[in-house]
Design brief:
2 copies of one chain form a homodimer.
Chain A (H helix, E strand, L loop, with lengths): L10 H11 L8 E2 L2 H7 L2 E6 L9 H10 L3 H6 L1 E4 L3 H13 L3 E6 L4 H9 L3 E5 L3 H15 L2 E2 L6 H17 L5 E5 L4 H13 L4 E7 L4 H8 L21 H10 L2 E5 L1 H14 L10 H8 L1 H4 L3 E6 L15
Parallel strand pairs in A: 2-10, 3-4, 3-6, 4-5, 7-8, 7-10, 8-9
Antiparallel strand pairs in A: 1-2
Helix pairs in contact in A: 1-3, 1-8, 3-5, 3-8, 5-6, 8-9, 9-11, 12-13
Chain lengths: 322, 322
């Protein structure tokens, strides 16, 4: 069976998404730190998506998908596979609409994440931590429930939702030269591209990636998607590969992809906790790590930094590791 | 020598303070959490003073004192004794005005706090960790420098400055029933009393105190100041006693003082980090601990909670203690 032609979400889709999800998300604050500005030589504006109720920007795309369903489909609910914030956020959005949400999660996913999905009313089905098991279990769950599949990032509704974040960032700041965000599957970056390519095409979009999971950077340089099998990085939200839809945005609108080492990521995470005084995931620290590492590139610039999520295990902070 | 009669700052002093300090402080955001609301049965509004640049509400009172000095006094600078956030914040404010700041700190004060004072341009003079040494060293420093003494809390300029926090909180929220804040020396609570007794006298003011440093609660019940010698609590900002000026506000305007155990404070701190996703000091967790412990008192109410500061040692978090 041939895939349907890919639908590329438009700026109007993003505007419609914002109207649709506004009652269900927070307009998160933009925080600044004179001290971090001094350290980097740049003027940084942190868009704090970790302060969304379920703790991640993914509530935007998930809410857009959930609240965009017609009544017939909504009755059957939604379904996805994810070990991370997309599972939480889709459950949260489905819970707000009062419809079923089925999530396939690997047995090895953190208990705290499974608990959060259930707290929001989602149903967890466990699979083995392999792609084949996940696909098999997910196909069965979807067949049994009829739930609408909402991919964590390779979905036009999700990307249109994520694009609302940089729309708000542009409303909350003035004269940005650069927006930077972490890149994993590319959902946030694609939403950023979608919005800024129309709203503010003069703003550079720089993606930040862990050295140890640098498939997006290598894809960007090679001109086609390179997917790694099982990269290992402390930035656990960024292990997944680009897909066709996110590759479209990355290849067309991203100015550059820069990388940072594990050590640089942990250091950037710690100084953000210390000076910005927010709780955020290792993934969110990759942009600051990249800014600190490429001072000449960012100094003197006004830089928007998307802080993507804040669901961390407070008993296992990376600088505590013995 | 007889003390001068005590000057009680007025609502107009608070308004003047706000105009004076506005360029030097942040209008900090008010954050909410549906999950913490569910846990407490109340509707909570967290005024995040930990997000001030130097990380504490004390920048308000310190800035009011510093920017209120006339030119002659300003040339000689300011001086104080403090092992905590007041030292940081006074140095920060003095640095912004470009005037000297001398701080007497006990040798035993955390190195990170001394470093922060110096980073802001303050001059640290160390004393022994005793009241007699502190007073002796401070008298010498003040005589040598001529710096204007700015007490951490028993100072009308400082209290008027702290009062600007609840003014903003009232502007940022609607229909509050209660405002709660931690109490140590009583600076924040006094500022809250100063502002709300005029602006919103129907709002109850409830102070929150560690059981292990409950001198304010006992003073409140006894009707006169009781000062303990050296209370020990993880809420290290709250060890100091009330003084005449803060006692004036506490005894006249506070509805109640409630206490929480060390264990309850640490638990409340951890759930705030987890669900509100901010970095805050143990002292700031006392109000939430008190709300969780006295559910019947707060359930169904709209409650403003002042998050007082966010300068913590990330290598020594209390739930990590072995």
């Amino acid at each position: 069976m041939k895939d349907a032609p890919m639908y590329i979400p438009t700026y109007e889709d993003m505007l419609a998404a914002h109207d649709r999800i506004r009652p269900h998300i927070r307009r998160t604050p933009v925080l600044t730190s004179d001290h971090l500005d001094d350290l980097t030589g740049a003027k940084l504006f942190f868009k704090c998506e970790n302060l969304q109720e379920p703790g991640a920007f993914k509530v935007r795309g998930a809410s857009n998908a959930v609240f965009g369903l017609d009544e017939d489909q909504a009755r059957l609910g939604v379904a996805t596979h994810s070990s991370g914030n997309h599972a939480l956020c889709l459950s949260y959005a489905a819970g707000r609409r009062g419809i079923p949400c089925n999530v396939v999660m690997p047995k090895t996913a953190p208990q705290a994440k499974k608990d959060a999905v259930r707290r929001y009313g989602g149903q967890v089905t466990e699979c083995e931590p392999s792609t084949s098991s996940r696909e098999e279990v997910f196909a069965r769950v979807q067949q049994e429930t009829g739930g609408e599949f909402v991919h964590p990032y390779n979905d036009p509704r999700v990307i249109a939702g994520q694009g609302t974040c940089s729309k708000e960032l542009m409303e909350q700041t003035e004269g940005l030269d650069i927006v930077t965000a972490p890149i994993g599957g590319g959902g946030m970056i694609s939403g950023t591209c979608l919005t800024l390519s129309t709203l503010a095409p003069e703003v550079q979009i720089i993606a930040a990636e862990p050295e140890q999971a640098d498939d997006a950077m290598r894809s960007f340089k090679a001109g086609h998607i390179i997917a790694d099998d099982a990269p290992e990085t402390i930035a656990d939200g960024l292990k997944v590969p680009l897909k066709d839809l996110t590759w479209h945005f990355v290849s067309n609108h991203v100015s550059d992809i820069l990388t940072a080492s594990e050590e640089e990521i942990v250091e950037a995470m710690k100084i953000t906790w210390k000076y910005l005084r927010i709780v955020m995931e290792p993934s969110c620290a990759v942009p600051l790590a990249v800014i600190l590492k490429n001072r000449e590139r960012f100094a003197g610039k006004r830089v928007g930094v998307v802080v993507t999520g804040g669901n961390v295990d407070l008993d296992r902070l990376p600088w505590m590791a013995g």
